[in-house]
Amino acid sequence: MVKVLTSRRWLGAFGVALAFAVAAYFLGQWQWHRYEAKAARADRIHAHYDAKPRPVTDVLGPAPMPLAEEWTRVTMHGRYAADKTLLVRNRPYQGTYGYEVLVPFVDDSGATVLVDRGWVMNAQTAQTLPRVVPPPTASLTVTGWLRRWEPSLGKSMPAGQVASINQAEVSSRVGTQLLGAYVVLDVERLPDGSAPSRPTPLEAPDTDLGPHQAYAFQWWLGMVAGFVLVWFGARREYLEGATTPQQAGPASPKKVRIWDEEDA
């Protein structure tokens, strides 16, 4: 058996099995890290999403918000800067792409926070902007969830639009420094307690963990598959060789001595 395993053929197969095992290990690690990232995000959402709202200035400052604070529920009182409304394009809602409506909100403390008021459908043509429900001009209370700023896409956009919800780009467009995260709108309340009209609310965040944990275990369990195949293949070859009878060579002709012929 050792002779079979150490043959060139099966040593090459062993090398292929080893390379597959190394690849399977790292693919399992990759899937496990994806699972951990989704699990951590789901934990943050579950911890913050339905919690009692906190004053926005107790959570946010000018510096970027830490990841651990994402989806914190906050509240603030003040007024919208309606004349600085922006649209961010190519935003999905239930499988359809449209715009999200961004409006700066000036809190009573003087801080300015960007509010994502919701989603609107595309207009009939790409050159036409959609109709947007304007924010109220009166003072009101806004409650929503904090989201971290998005990376810049590096695109030049027409006036009144941005390609992503990026702090530097939006601050430049609205002409004022914004706090270190933006707010996804949950509810608005006017002084009389009524809720004004608004764009379509954004979908609730997805907390599904996906199949990544199962995929990680599958890859790690699959690490031994190559070695098992090599073992069974080599063993089969060894057993077949051990049970095959040796081919007998042709019989040597019997020598006949001269005196044997004379005696015959």
TrEMBL record:
This is SURF1-like protein. The keyword Transmembrane applies. InterPro entries: Surf1/Shy1, Surf1/Surf4. It is found in: Cell membrane; Membrane. The chain crosses the membrane at residues 217-234. One of its GO terms (cellular component) is plasma membrane. It comes from the Bacteria. It is a multi-pass membrane protein. Residues 242-264 are annotated as: Disordered.
